[in-house]
Amino acid sequence: MKAKFKWGIIAPGKIAHAFAEGIKTLPDAEVYAIASSSQERADAFAKKFKVAKTYNAYETLVADPSVDAVYISSPHHLHFSHSMLALNAGKPVLCEKPFTVNAVETEKLLKTAKEKNLFIMEALWTRFLPIYGIIRKWLNGGRIGEITLLTSTFGFRPERNKKGRLLNPDLAGGALLDIGIYPLSVSQWVMDEHPESFKIHALMGETGVDELLAGVLIYKNGVVSQFSSNFLSENINDFYIYGTKGHIRIHPNFWGSTQATLNVNGKEKTTSAPFNATGFEYQTAETMRCIRAGLLESPVMPHSETLSMMRLMDSIRAEIGLQYPFE
Fold this sequence. Notes:
The chain is α/β, with parallel strands linked by helices. It has two domains: 5-124, NAD(P)-binding Rossmann-like Domain (Rossmann fold); 130-274 and 310-320, Dihydrodipicolinate Reductase, domain 2 (2-Layer Sandwich), CATH 3.30.360.10. It is built from nine helices and 14 strands. It has helices at 14-23, 39-49, 58-63, 79-88, 103-115, 130-140, 175-191, 281-292, 303-320; strands at residues 5-10, 29-35, 53-55, 69-72, 93-96, 120-123, 147-155, 197-204, 210-218, 224-230, 239-243, 246-250, 259-264, 267-272. The chain has an eight-stranded mixed sheet with strand order 8-9-10-7-11-12-13-14, with helices on one face. A six-stranded parallel sheet has the order 3-2-1-4-5-6, with helices on both faces. Helix 4 runs parallel beside helix 5 (103-115). It starts with a strand and ends in a 7-residue tail after the last helix. The relative contact order is 0.16.
């Protein structure tokens, strides 16, 4: 029997809770250590998930020789520094999306991981969900013919907290990095290529970040992906893939869906693929598989796609005039 893979987590927020719940379904893994700037929060997390080690400094967690890999779930603007801290301590990294704030930071992390011969991956959990494996089979099998159009929305109304991570420019806030990455990344996944161009409209809020983003990605073969992301309205939040023979609907919420409908010649079939837990367990299992196999990146979420996405989001931010104070 394999020894249990020991995870260390930086920042015990809401996403870290989903990650830890997912690990409960993996018999060869455990959350071994948690680090927080607040000892009280670290202790509460450790009590809930029966974590052996708690740290009130991130440096001590990454220095723990028993930690096999580090999961970074801190706010966006800290992803780069926390991932670099782990890499420099010799730890493989699974870092929450967006991987970093910009492509320059992404390039530095990927370069460091390569130099140190360490695995690193963006935790874009959508890529690993069972329903997406089914959808990929439909696409590869030509069930809907040639792709012609993608449409998607991601919108919700959060609490209007100007100092919170969603609206605060000092925390790399805005709709694009927080939720816009999902329609962009699923479009990239469907098309398996980078768009040739894009057209974007943004509504900038009083804090200076994008509260609504709507746009079109244009691909070399004429396919377009129409998308929107916003903090202003509660949307249906599904994703449609249209083709010459039919279409696929990824049910709400598409980025964490367990259902998809295939419509060919007017005949519909809905398929379900429930999670074992929270859905985070699939990316965790892939990370462990890669590390145990000596891989430096996952073929499911390769470095090239993470860098491509960061460059696209950099270009979109340049288009709408959004630069963060710390850049």
